Structures are given as structure tokens and as C-alpha cells.
Amino acid sequence: MRVRHKPWADDYLKENDHIVVQEPKTYKGKWRELFGNDKPLHVEIGSGKGQFITGMAAQHPEYNFIGIELAKSIIVTAVEKAAEANLPNVRLLNENAADFRELFEENEVDSIYLNFSDPWPKNKHEKRRLTYKSFLEQYEAVLKDDGEVVFKTDNQKLFEYSLSSFSRYGMILQEVKLDLHTENDPLNVKTEYEEKFSSRGYRIYRSVATFK
């Protein structure tokens, strides 16, 4: 779906620098200083319009949350949600997470969320999938020893590929759900895509994986 260009987005993001971190690479290794506490740090790659990251921050005040979204015309909606909810434990980054290690220091992150990532279905685009081995290397570098990668998707082929990728990399699958919504988990925070796809009858898949 094409997103309408918002020419005012740049100014809006700068005006809300208490939510959107300016020059985030300067905070590498110092995120807990920015939040002003030592709470565990949870990061979502591809936060979209911010429903998941703000929902998680509201549900878990005991954690700090960082949402990363590249598209300015999309992240502005996430900023609006965060501002309205007045959540002190959430920050947003208008960044490309292609090299995660530029943003976070080794052993700095407790959990990484990958929600409804682009499946890049063509084989020639495999390296762009966020569960490809080069991305897993980055996650392993910044996660603590017991850190988790939490992955949700409606795309069965991407899910199967990701489980295989995790296994080949030597990760341990702590959880595999093939139809998440049949369990009616009250703690499951839904993304915008999750609500849309589940309402159309699509299965929602979820896995939780850790590194050895």
C-alpha cells in the first residue's frame, strides 16, 4: 500500500525530539542514560504506525522500548500515538536498521521484536529478510546472553524460512505458535497488520528464539 507523502514530517519529528531521538548513533551504549534508569531495553525493528511499541510500553512500564522505523510518513503516526499516551519508557528512531550494531553496543539489548516484516519472497532477495543470517549475527552481537528474538508474521513461507534460519544459525527455539490467536493470549499486543490480517482469517505465527 502506497503511503501518502507528508511534507511536514521532517519538522514534526524535530519538534518532538523528546520522543524521536535525534542523532541516535551517539547514544550507542548509552541508552539507559537517555531513559534515566537501568530497566531492560526492548527494541522493535520496523515499528510502522506504532501500535505495538506504544501498547507494549503501556503494558510493561518495567521495560524501556525503542521502535525503529525508516519511513518518515509512517513514523509520524507512531509519534502521535506515543505523545498522546505520554509514555516515558518509549523512544522512536527514524533510522535504517540495516546495521543494527551502529545503534547498539554489545550486550545492550534484552529483546528484539520483528513484527510482520517484509517477506521478500524472491530467492534473490533472501539477504534482505530480517531473519537472514547476516541480521542474526547483528542481533546476537547486541543482545544479552539470555536475550530473545520475538518474531510474528502472517506469512507461512517466511515463518518456515525463519525457523530454518534460526536452526541453521544454532539458535534455540523457545516458543513456536502456528495459530497464535486461537489461544486468546490477553498479553499479546497486536500490530496494525496483525489486526488486519487476522480479521481476514489469516493465521498469525509467532516464535521466540535465543542464542546459545
Model description:
The protein has a seven-stranded mixed sheet with strand order 3-2-1-4-5-7-6, with helices on both faces. With 212 residues, the protein is an alpha/beta fold. Helix 3 links the parallel strand 1 (41-45) and strand 2 (64-68). The protein contains seven helices and seven strands, in the order ααβαβαββαβαβαβ. The model has no long low-confidence stretch (mean pLDDT 95).
Please tally the helical runs, counting DSSP H or I stretches of 4 or more residues.
7
Gap from first CA to last CA: 38 Å
Rg (CA only):
17 Å
The secondary-structure class comes to: alpha/beta
The strand line-up of the biggest sheet is 3-2-1-4-5-7-6
Bin the strand percentage: 15-25%
* Annotation, overall tally of beta strands: 7
Most strands sheet: 7 strands, mixed
Secondary structure layout:
Blueprint: H1 9-15, H2 31-35, E1 41-45, H3 51-59, E2 64-68, H4 72-85, E3 90-93, E4 109-115, H5 133-142, E5 143-153, H6 156-169, E6 172-177, H7 192-199, E7 205-210
Parallel strand pairs: 1-2, 1-4, 2-3, 4-5
Antiparallel strand pairs: 5-7, 6-7
Helix pairs in contact: 1-4, 3-4
Which key features would you list for this structure?
212 residues; alpha/beta; 7-stranded mixed sheet; 7 helices; 7 strands; 32% helix
Short structural description:
The protein is an alpha/beta fold and 212 residues long. The chain contains 7 helices and 7 strands. It is globular, with a radius of gyration of 17 Å.
